[in-house]
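Q: Hi! First time asking for a complex rather than a single chain. Here are the components, and I think there are two in total. Is that enough to go on?
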Amino acid sequence: MDTVALLLTLRLALVTTAILLVLAVPLAYWLAFTRSRWKTLIQAVCSLPIVLPPTVLGFYLLVGLGPSTAFGRAITHVLGHPLAFSFAGLVVGSVLYSLPFAVQPLTSGFAAVDRSLLDAATTLGSGRWDRMARVVLPLSRGSLLTAGVLSFAHTVGEFGVVLMIGGNLPGATRTLSIALYDQVQDFQYAQANRTALFLLAICLLALMFLYSRGQRRDSRSSDLA
Amino acid sequence: MPDLPISIAANAPWLSAHIEHHFQRDRAGFTLHLDFTASAQRTVVFGPSGSGKSSLLRAIAGLLQPDVASIQLHGTVVCQNMRGRQQRFFLAPEKRRVGLVMQNPAVFPHLTAARNVAFALHGTEKSAQKEKTIRLLQLVEADTLADRWPRELSGGQLQRVAIARTLAAEPSVLLLDEPFAALDAQSRQTISQNVHAWARERQVPVLTVTHNLEEAFAAGEEVLTMEEGRILAQGTPEQVLFEQREQLLQMLHATPSPGSVDNLRGK
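A: Yes, that's all I need. Here is the structure of the assembled complex.
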């Protein structure tokens, strides 16, 4: 198997997951508790990557981060190279592309926290962010794990965005899913099979891990009943 | 703090409230309309379920933002939202120092009983936290439960933890919403006495909400009776009991509470 591509894929998935959790927690907290009229719009925008062809997202990122926009030129000036066709560019694309997989489990987890617990914390002098840190997050550990695992698995499996924005540079932007594509193009089916099996196994294990946790929780609650 | 007039006199009311609020979603057409002051150390609000007692407490605590309101605690405005007035003000509930023990004890399930009590002591010195937590758990006769998890506790035990947790925050006003309902008669009396002694020592006024007639007229120095979002009467227990005898009996028939009718007739 292409170990360079494997390591790059794992690094991308880890960095993306870490950034996503930091970004998605406050965003999901806001979505779970706000009564703002902007909520619907923000919710829809956050979920767009689920239905949008990844090539559309990749295309706009390529254009937006390229030399044709002021933003793209500013980034090129700061970094010394364009964001497209670099690992940093891949991270930006992956974060956007996997955003709903982090935001949705967190939002529903946060919203499921009993409001009377939040009322109690409030009258005990706990402010908005303190309540998040000391009541909402500890009670949403399961959702945090789900968000992390789904973001990781989804980033490992992405193809379209990576291809559009990253190109196919070994060691910089050539992830496993792209390596698989190349192997098939070169008629190296045995190699392609190994890569494909590996990706399949990662995703299957991730989902089995999540479902096994859900099942354990269900059996525990039926014990109580 | 708001730049509104603050006045503290010797017998000044600790609570002055004008509250109007219309509930649309939960209860069709229910309107809360109250205007009263409270100056007694122990005030009891009595009324049948659904008369708006809990909403009154939530408005004082800041968990409910009424449509129209002017609420002062110890002479300080915490909510000002009157018709036609320019100046609007709403003090965030976490800054009001109002202790509220709700009917639902809402004990944090991810913390032990002791850590629940210490929740409001976050950031203070560990040994002081521990000492205060134990003292408050003793006050509600729950010191043996310190290391237990909420899922291991009964309803009455959870209520004790919730009471101790509220006192730990050193509130300047204590609001109790049927706080002793899940306790047996004997512990109810002891814990109620302890809590009131705690409050009197610190000159913290207590407002208790109950639909138990006996509790209302035995405990309070001042009684308010409520029905359908309005105040029917306010005064000493004797006054209210005398003036409102007929209405109180009707109220009791509307929401049967075993034993209470006989107690009233006996008096």
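A: Chain A is about 80% helix and 0% strand. Let me know if you'd like any chain examined more closely.
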